[in-house]
Write a structure and sequence with these properties.
40% of the residues lie in helices and 11% in strands. It is α+β, with helices and mostly antiparallel strands and 1147 residues long. It has seven domains: 94 residues; 191 residues, P-loop containing nucleotide triphosphate hydrolases (Rossmann fold); 88 residues, no CATH class; 91 residues; 155 residues, no CATH class; 155 residues, Methylamine Dehydrogenase, Chain H; 74 residues, no CATH class. α1 packs parallel to α7, α8 packs parallel to α14 and α9 runs parallel beside α13. InterPro entries: NACHT_NTPase, NPHP3-like_N, P-loop_NTPase, WD40/YVTN_repeat-like_dom_sf, WD40_PAC1, WD40_repeat_CS, WD40_repeat_dom_sf, WD40_rpt.
Amino acid sequence: MARERLKKLLCRSANPSNSGLSAPQGSSQTPAGDPTSDAQTAGNASRGSFARMKNFFHQSGRVPAKDVQGSTAETGPDPVSVGTKVEASGVALDAMTPVPRIGQRAVRGVAMVDTAVTDIQTLCDTYLQPLKIFNSVVTNIANIHPYAQVALGILTAASKLIITQANLDNAISGLLEKLGSVYKLLLEEDMMKKFDDMRDTLAKIARVVSDAAQFVANYTETKSFWKRLGKHIVSETQSTIDDYTKTLDDLMQQYRDCAVRDVRINMHRMLEDVNLEGMAYAAGAGLDTTKKCLDGTRTEILQEITRWATDLDVNAPRILWLHGQAGRGKSAIAHTVASWIKDVGGLGSCFCFARDRQAEHREQKIFATVARGLADRDPAFRRALADAVSRDYDLKTTSDVTQQWQQLVLGPLSKVHGLIVGNVVVVIDALDESGPEISRRHILSVLTSTEAAHLPANFRILLTSRPLPDIERALGACQHVKATSLDNVSAELTKRDIRLYVSKQLGDLREIGDTEVRTIVQKSDCLFEWARLACEFVKPNRPGRTVMERFDEVAFLRSGGGGALLDAMYKTILDDTIPNDDTTLARFRSVMGQIMSTFEPLHMDALNKMRTQFPHEEDRFDVIVILEFMSPLLGGIADRTCLVRPLHASFHDFLSDPARSGIYFIGASDMYSLSFASLQSLCGGLRFNICGLESSYLSNSDVLDLSERIDQSISTHLSYSCRFWAQHLHKTAFDATLATWAKAVIGSEKILFWLETLSLLGASGGAADSLRNTAAWLLGQDGFEDLLEVVQDGIKFIRNFGSVISCSAPHVYISALPFTPSNTVLSRQLVPKFSCLVGVSGGVKEWPAVQLALVGHTSRVNGVGFSPDGKRIVSGSSDKTVRIWDAERGVQIGGSLQGCDGPVWSVGFSPDGKRIVSGSWDIIVRIWDAERGVQIGGPLQGHDDQVLSVGFSPDGKRVVSGSQDKTVGIWDVEQGMQIGSLIHGCCGSVFSVVFSPDNKKIALGSDDSAVRVLDAEGFVGMFNTCKNLTLPVCNPRNIPVPPADVIQAYPICFSSVSSNALPDAQQLLDGLLLEDPSVVDEPVRFHPDGWIRGPKGRLLLWIPPALWRSFYSMWTKTVIPKGCCIELDLSQMAHGNKWHQCFKPVL
């Protein structure tokens, strides 16, 4: 009777709605002179700790955690509420009074239970209160190591089990007391700060506490078992409690000391009373700790998975499907999670498929093996499982996966509900390696069933696989399955983890430094499996080659050896995927040939669009019939909008080498089909004003919705064809059919449509190269001389108008076409097809020598130079800056290079185009990174006066400089220091210096009227001859800019004939007056970059540089002699929102 009453009181105390955090009522007082109990001592030891805890949470408050995809996850209450909760908890504990010895004796003496109900209730509240506080506090901690997170999850779950299932048998009160003190100590601020650093010890504590919690919950059954064995129950109980107490004391002391010592942990689980012999079991399919992730890697994805695995929310998805291409590290993550769950004492099981064990038909034993694994870890589940198989012996050996799932997993779980510490976590690794699709059909059916959708709230299944079609179809649409792709993990995070891994694996090799590690990381292409194999290959495990020789094979992906690390995996996957029949192999080669031949990856829809244009009927099939099964080796298969690209760069080499790929060999790239398809796409897809731009006044960058317009109007395959058609053509043998299709594009107005499209795509910089490739392809071909002439004109058109083409697509027609020299084939062919263009009187008839004007410096330009490939120009100016320009488009690349304290007199590129040297007024030579636009190293100092000339040696290792101090300096580029001393001997300032092609001599010119040649190695002046040569210098142009207050008195006219003025000039104000009425006072001006701009910078017209000096200005009064100026007839010009009237297609 008394015992039943005690249980009711304990249940009332444990109920969250009644327990609260206030001090218990009616707690007994310690008699005078009575020594304090151990519990009181422990309580006094931690007095005041909760005030510190409140401060700790205010400082470290819980930050919203982010999952591996970057989305913010809900993380619970804010720090203020946490601090308030901790403070309240502290008050509650401080209000507690020690338990008197009479209370302890009441618990320990069964005969005195009826007379000590109040004391026992107080005792239980005292022990259990820290567990309740722990639950409320620890759940608000985030941003800790995922292993520590798993341990805290188990401690929280164990505390809840103890609170709800604590047996009031007096024999285990000592264990409850110890567990209460452990939780109380873990709540101290200093202890909580160690969660991360001491996570291994914390995991051991969690494991022991979990086992102790199960012992408490199952104490009645345990006593019955001991009684059947004839054991002494009291002594067995005390021995078990003593063992738990000693182990916990050792671990807590180790935790306090931040020391790692070997502590023996005995798990007290009574499993001997049931017999599971003869039950089906897949040997070797369990956890393999050697596959675990290296500590410190995969942190973000592990945090996401452990949050899901330990989440107590009843609405959490029961299954997490972790998928990705082969070699991404899925198995390492799976085994890490399984190992952590086991280490902390959680209930779980791990089942792994393996391609080399398919003959064992592991899929027929999957859930029987999982059930055995759970039974080995939990006595209650073991008893429930034994009961199930005892009533139906056939269950032990059944290969029926559905029966295994229902009778061996779900059935026993339903019977032990509420007796398990934490969530049950089952890991199923590499389902894709089970064998053919039929081998996993029933497993997928079970996982997608209604029963799986309604699994117990504390049940989790972590499943890993490649995204094979059947698995994708089954799991992709399930609401109770959370899908996470390793292919979507950011490259930055993956490279960080691979760098840690490689550094750990090869760090003890003296030959391998940071540079070599970075190289391996780069070559890995974010593939962990390749990095693992590369490290194994580089290690000196076999004779014949040095470490660096092995490294070079890996770094340069040479055939065989280091270049074939993944060949076995490629061959195995292809053997499993591609049937060995003629039709399938032919289609495989066709699709992979297309993917390998494209100059940038395309998504499946674009590949199909291109394929519909292929010349041969047999190639016009949907690529999905092959690619659907290639997801293990190619990215972009699951989502048709993602780019299809190889798993690793070595896959291309594998398929290109018949000795390595065998029947999967892809021969010479079929560039003919891609050339044909690209030209067909251009002929059918290009059109005037393709994106429907309403106004010609805006530059491309000012069209706010340009990206959306491009997405809607320019398909991916058309974009690709515009950028790469000529490259495919260049790699194809000459063919008259292809030449005819090329003429249909280049020899018509479509060439302007093509340039317009490139302008919108921001890809006009490659237009000239495309036409140069076409010219080379046509050279010497009879019957296509006229096409070649058009191509050559097109190259000059781009050179002259590159800046306007890249700036604004409408001005391909409005500004570029009217100024095309009248005697050119391009002008004769295209101008008649357009109307409403600017009329040019006195314009050029042939292409001018001046092609570009690069405008941006604010003072005179003192030095210029081309990059070795001719695509960039560097300039130095008196405005103290160095600038880099695109030689094709005439626009600046990046920002200006700043740091000089005076005019920059001389500049030049290095032979590899990666560096720039400058010499300036501040007596300093500087080296710049041409790609990043930053200075490399410190300034090269040594001259006593301005540096007037600089230059690189042909090998790029040295720089020569000439100065106004009459000396020449030679500098080591790599070390950033002067070689030898300054060379004297000139009688004047050195204005020009240059190395000879063999690096052995230096020629210099100075203002003493002499050219000198120096020995670049011995620094000896060799001879002094040659007079200075001078060239005429162009006078700087002077463009008149009238005051703003007189602009409106003039019409917009660039002709001596007033009727040639711009019609409907008020269009320039359309849409502006309502926003800013003052725009009427803004002038229309001719700017230094050649643009005539109206209010708010609206683009009216661009004037080529060759016409600037003789251009008729709006403010010109008289021209002498008459007719010497270039005059414009704007009277018919279509502009603004009428610009598209310049072209009227023939229907």
